[in-house]
Structure prediction request, 135 residues.
Amino acid sequence: MEWELETSPYPLPHKLASGEVIMESFRRYRDAIALLDWENYCVIEKIETLKPRTGAATSLITFLKTLALKHRFRIFGNPIPYKPTCLLAAASPLSQTDLQSWYSKNGFLVGNGNDGGIYLWFPNKPESQSASGRQ
Prediction:
């Protein structure tokens, strides 16, 4: 709820490989946007900056981490580069190595799952997890 109070809706159209266009429910926090999935924990689907190299994405992730610690939930994600959805976002996203380094520098546990996929957790990961990293 606090996430929704401090952010504003920022829906964006996304064209799937099939040609179908869907609306993605991004939310804006200052000069960055995030597409999150709230399950048993917060799943980062996408984060994009509207002003590249200004610290906007770091500010968003710092706020999200503050909420995680305050409300005692975990943040999970797969740090994989993708073509940004928002036209204002950086034209060339971080490389795989730079993305993993950025999350690590920002206090996330980044590593390989049992299935070989790359995952991130904050503040920690569950003791028992499936190969994909989710419980």
Confidence is low (pLDDT under 50) at residues 130-135. Residues 26 and 35 are 4 Å apart (CA to CA).
